[in-house]
Design brief:
The complex is a heterodimer. Chain A has a seven-stranded mixed sheet. Chain A has a two-stranded antiparallel ribbon with strand order 7-8. Chain A is of the alpha+beta class. By secondary structure, chain B is of the alpha/beta class. Helices cover 39% and strands 23% of the residues of chain B. In chain B, strands 1, 2, 3, 5, 6, 7 and 8 form a seven-stranded mixed sheet that branches. In chain B, strand 2, helix 3 and strand 3 form a beta-alpha-beta unit. Classes of the chains: A alpha+beta, B alpha/beta. Chain A: Pfam families: Redoxin. Chain A: InterPro entries: PRX5-like (IPR037944), Redoxin (IPR013740), Thioredoxin-like_sf (IPR036249), Thioredoxin_domain (IPR013766).
Chain lengths: 166, 159
């Protein structure tokens, strides 16, 4: 499995879809699915992409998202501008997952790797789902990229692991 | 079965029924004066041929859009003036490139065009709130959400 590794450039043409969070306007607005041009956005930001096999699945829910929610300030202190969670689920499911985790703003964005396009392009998929991985992109360059091959473990892609590499 | 079981079943049916029978039919447009945009070219033509255009970005499946539709229609009926003040609705599912152009991320979003571009509107006494975003110099940049009072205030300021 090729994947990405530290030192690579983040590939061009990577796009995700997501529903923009509406926060306190939840009762009077409906979020609109929009395309996120990841390759463009990552050129001037420091971003952590976290891929999970599935929204709402046990490990992802109990450990993965919570580890990032708990470490948001630590990540910001190390210069991370944005945390993006992706999965094979569609953008509506991802938006609901974000809301279920109480994320009302854009501190963590929940996006769909539509059709597994990105994950397939780097070979980090298993069947219809992405592998569990984390990639740190700093202004277009990959600084850290690793997958968790041990089931139920977030040792390589959890917030603590990523923090230790920043 | 016990009463509580009946009540539980009725409750579940109520919740499920609401979701299943939620209105996804096209939101009716009652005003003949609202431009129902179907293409980007049509949109460009409307904003080019009217000094001021109030644009409603909406979707049929969005309940707040359905709720504010009659308000929008009524404003169009009362205040539209050919060439000077027009009202247009853009269904984001059918005309999706136009919404993307203006960074529309929630619906309904109301944008106010003057001479072809989105322009802030100076509205006396409007207080900034979640649904009303202001430009740097205090003009209303856009309205996000079904905020009837804000929409009426801005349209009145355009008259």
């Amino acid at each position: 499995m090729p994947g990405l590794k530290a030192g690579d450039s983040f590939p061009e043409g990577v796009k995700f879809t997501y529903v923009a969070p509406t926060g306190q306007l939840d009762l009077t607005t409906c979020g609109l699915p929009i395309k996120y041009d990841a390759s463009e956005e990552f050129k001037n930001k420091k971003v952590v992409i976290v891929a999970v096999p599935g929204a709402f699945t046990p490990t992802c829910q109990e450990q993965h998202v919570t580890s990032y929610l708990a470490n948001l300030d630590n990540l910001k202190a190390k210069g991370v501008d944005q945390v993006v969670f992706i999965a094979s689920n569609d953008h509506f499911v991802m938006a609901a997952w974000g809301k279920a985790n109480g994320v009302k703003d854009d501190s963590i964005l929940f996006m769909s790797d539509t059709g597994l396009a990105f994950s397939k392009s780097i070979g980090w998929t298993k069947g219809d789902r992405t592998l569990r991985y984390a990639i740190v992109v700093d202004h277009g360059k990959v600084v850290y990229a690793d997958t968790d091959d041990v089931p139920k473990s977030i040792g390589k892609s959890g917030a603590e692991a990523v923090l230790s590499k920043l | 079965m016990e009463t509580s079981t009946y009540l539980l079943i009725l409750f579940v049916l109520f919740i499920v029924g609401r979701a299943v029978f939620a209105d996804r039919s096209p939101i009716p447009e009652t005003s003949g004066k609202v431009f129902k945009i179907t293409t980007a070219a049509e949109f460009d033509a409307v904003v080019a041929s009217n000094t001021h255009v109030v644009v409603d970005f909406y979707a049929d499946w969005c309940p707040p859009c359905r709720a504010i539709a009659p308000v929008f229609s009524e404003l169009a009926d009362s205040h539209a003036q050919a060439g000077r003040l027009a009202f247009a609705k853009v269904n984001v599912d059918h005309v999706n490139n136009v919404a993307g152009r203006y960074g529309v991320s929630a619906m309904p979003t109301f944008l106010f065009f003057e001479k072809g571009s989105p322009t802030g509107v100076a509205v006396q006494g409007i207080r900034p709130r979640q649904s009303v975003s202001l430009t740097g110099d205090g003009r209303v940049d856009r309205i996000r959400g079904a905020d009837k009072a804000a929409l009426q205030a801005v349209v009145e300021a355009l008259l």
